[in-house]
Amino acid sequence: MHIQVFKTVLNTHSQAQCVCVFISMLFTLSDCEQNKTSLMQLLSADRTHTHTDTHTHSHTHTHTLTHINTGCPSWIKKDPQVLINSVCLKMLNLRNGDSDGVIDPVCVNVGGELYTTTLDTLTRCRDSMLGAMFTGQIPLLRDRHGNFFIDRDGKTFRHILNFLRCSSLDLPADFTELTLLRREADFFQIRPLMEELDRRGAEPGSGRGGEGALLCVEVDSVERVLHFNYKRKPESYELCSCAVRVHSAHIFCTSHTLIKLLSSSFSYWTGSVSVVPQPGRMDLKLEWVPCPPELPREQHIRHGFQELSVTHHSEHSEHGISLSDTRSFMAELLRVVLAEGFRIDLVSPDPSDVLNCHHLRCVRY
């Protein structure tokens, strides 16, 4: 409530006058007369040109409020943001019973991950839960080293802190925890970040998906015997045979965006070049043949066989991670479609063995 009042005053008063309102509100947030006295002493210690009277608390409070209409002391007008940060730190100390005081930089332990930042960064969004924590409105715990402790996901907090620092959401290209980041942003009630996540959620490949859609997948695997001539020596050939496994997948989806995303998630490897499979408007057909150890690579290429790889892992090897069977293909397919908001609706023949299924149906509502 106090934050909303202060935001209203910001729209109708000068910055210096708002500082006076801010200080007055801090008095109402103090839960006892002793804290009010301590607050005034701390404020007086920071500025030698104070205009407050510490003889009586009521007189001090009234004197501060009068500055809303009559103006503020010159030292407040000169650097009001520094004063606000200073008062926030002092209220934070009073709320947490810290006699030594808190100074910038501030160390915060979030779920075991230690971050060092400033009070200005932590209170960038003052109407957020994080802003309330570091303006003394919500008591904070400390760890055994004296750092402020917040029991939330520590690794995800890195992206929240960077957003507060630069007002920009910069995520790694392979970031897959958008749902977790959205949950943390909602907990801390950082509305600009929540709005940015909602905006990205409507983009293809964002992890939110978008419109409702139906996805149907059929996979098959057939073993064939391949006969070939193998050159042992000059003018010496040997007739050889080996078994190869031909895998196929037919994907149908009412969302053309997902079809394009799946197409870009896989690539064919022909021995020398990597080729992205070409999708239809609402379907994608794949066929691949892993090269068995007993089959020479040149024979594999000569027969027009192609291996299927996962495109987004291409930085780990020359042509990505090869998919050896339909099970590994299904695992990668589910990773993509579940991240896009789909949920499994039907699995056959064995509903308990989704990775080895022949038919899969997913829906997005």
TrEMBL record:
Pfam families with a match to the protein in the record: BTB_2, KCTD11_21_C
GO biological process: protein homooligomerization; protein ubiquitination
Highest taxon of the lineage: Eukaryota
Pathways per UniProt: Protein modification; protein ubiquitination
InterPro entries, A to Z: BTB/POZ_dom, KCTD11/21_C, SKP1/BTB/POZ_sf, T1-type_BTB
Keyword Cytoplasm: no
Domain BTB: 104-205
Keyword Cell cycle carried by entry: no
Keywords for this protein: Growth regulation, Ubl conjugation pathway
Gene3D superfamilies: Potassium Channel Kv1.1, Chain A
Name of the protein: Potassium channel tetramerization domain containing 11
